[in-house]
Design a protein that fits this description.
Layout lengths: L12 H6 L3 H20 L4 H6 L3 H4 L4 H4 L5 H17 L4 H27 L11 H7 L16 H19 L5 H21 L2 H7 L4 H15 L4 H22 L13 H19 L9 H31 L4 H36 L9
Helix pairs in contact: 2-6, 2-15, 6-9, 6-12, 6-14, 7-15, 7-16, 10-11, 10-12, 10-13, 12-13, 12-14, 13-14, 15-16
């Protein structure tokens, strides 16, 4: 049976956007710091070259906990589902596109340029990508085109872009309402399951079965934010959590292997995924409205640029602090996080604050109609 159509008018988008959910900004920063913990101390790979040894030896007491930090990405995706539904509700397609492009691109372009330039320095041991590949990275299409990535974390942006496209075509273009959003969530959930079952590459790329539950769960939680008694919305959240924890365990748990970071338990993975859903649900229900400190807005503003630069430039900072200045492991960890937050603040102030409004205005401005002759 189809969900009933909305019977009451939607609140004005402008009025709804005035009440900023500052707790959501704080949760963004927590998710970003989780990912940083994973990249600095929860995995091997190129960060081992920065430390000089495996992070297992640098953080004998915490490396097992840091290994769960990769699940910060799933938390990000739940937040994104909530935020995109909130920001896209009642917006025309042009405004939605302008908002998303101006939010993502300025800091992303700056991060591509900075990381490429730093890695090209003779004193830096990490290899920069080829100039042609670096230029293509500016489009955010490097992953489907099979080009080397400048930023290791940009694979998540490719998932975000696909979500934006699906949401824009199915919800923003025809106009958001409760019935349409519920059908979108149900249809995407079913289609993603079918895509996983048939294992068709094109369907997998478009429908993203392994990431869809988190975006869909976030969308469902925005419906809960609008009406906490909405049984359909809670059903969307519940089904998405069930599928999401399955994919997280399936992708991130494997039999213990002493050669790798194999210390994640299935229960631990489920608990971290559940934390993401519960935290956004608490914000959606208004339970965290007391967390209304102004500094949380600053934290939210720093999250995206921090996320972009923290991994690759973090390697450079770790090597400088730990192997050149001989700071202890934990001091190096904290100094690297603070350095990346400072860089994120500079990017926010001198790149995002200056370019984002101009790009949004340019993209949102209606195109003048040619005069009839």
């Amino acid at each position: 049976m189809l969900p009933p159509a909305e019977t009451s008018p939607a609140p004005k988008p402008a009025a709804r956007r005035e009440n900023r959910l500052r707790a959501l900004d704080g949760l963004r920063l927590i998710a970003a710091l989780m990912v940083a913990c994973y990249h600095y101390g929860g995995r091997d790979g190129e960060v081992t070259q920065a430390w000089g040894t495996s992070p297992k030896h640098q953080f004998p007491a915490l490396h097992q906990l840091f290994a769960y930090g990769c699940l910060g990405v799933q938390v990000f995706f739940v937040i994104s589902g909530f935020v995109i539904c909130m920001s896209g509700w009642g917006r025309p397609l042009r405004s939605f596109f302008a908002s998303r492009a101006s939010r993502l691109l300025p800091a992303y372009w700056a991060a591509i340029i900075i990381v490429t330039a730093v890695f090209a320095l003779p004193a830096v041991a990490y290899k920069a990508v080829a100039p042609s590949d670096a230029l293509l990275n500016l489009t955010m299409l490097q992953q489907p085109l099979g080009v080397d990535r400048v930023l290791g974390v940009c694979w998540t942006l490719w998932a975000e872009v696909r979500f934006y496209a699906l949401f824009a075509l199915c919800i923003v273009l025809p106009g958001a309402n409760r019935r349409r959003v519920i059908l979108f969530c149900a249809g995407w959930t079913l289609a993603a399951a079918v895509a996983q079952g048939v294992n068709e590459p094109l369907l997998n790329m478009v429908l993203m079965p392994e990431y869809a539950p988190y975006f869909i769960g976030g969308v469902g939680l925005y419906l809960v934010h609008r009406d906490r008694r909405d049984a359909y919305a809670w059903g969307i959240v519940g089904v998405s959590w069930l599928i999401g924890q399955h994919y997280a365990v399936d992708r991130l748990w494997h039999a213990p292997n002493p050669q790798f970071f194999s210390d994640r338990s299935a229960l631990g993975i489920i608990l971290v995924v559940t934390f993401g859903y519960v935290a956004v649900a608490a914000i959606a229900l208004g339970w965290l409205n007391w967390a209304n400190w102004c500094w949380l807005t600053v934290a939210g503003a720093l999250t995206y640029p921090f996320y972009l630069v923290h991994e690759h430039l973090g390697w450079v900072a770790i090597e400088a602090y730990h192997r050149t200045l001989h700071l202890p492991s934990y001091a190096t960890f904290l100094a690297t996080v603070v350095t990346m937050l400072l860089l994120a603040w500079l990017l926010n102030r001198f790149v995002e604050n200056r370019l984002t409004p101009r790009l949004r205005s340019a993209l949102a401005k209606p195109r003048p109609q040619p005069a009839l002759r």
